[in-house]
Amino acid sequence: VLLMEWVCIAPAVAALDWNERNLCVVDAFGKKLTLARFKDQVFATSYTCPHAGGIMSNGYIDAVGNIVCPLHRYKFSLEKGRNVSGEGYHLKTYPVKIDENGVWVGQEKPRFFNWK
What we know:
four-stranded antiparallel β-sheet, single chain, 116 residues, 10 strands, three-stranded antiparallel β-sheet, mainly beta
């Protein structure tokens, strides 16, 4: 069982500062994250591409829902972070939940020696 910690990043999806490509940057857990909005879902990923550090919010979401890095056009699944263009990298993703209290991003709580 994963122990998660959640942080509220906005009171509602509409309150986030989305760019024209349905991407935005938020602060959570002391770091910047990229949010992506695709087909009525919100996804959270690392701020930068694991390949060369491109800022993911400067990229775009392709027609099938992959986030595309602006530097070298590497594509990553918004859901799992898997590199779908074949280069072998993995983009960190974070769970997102939306409820009447706001938009929340989660991350696994650190555990001492992985003890539960």
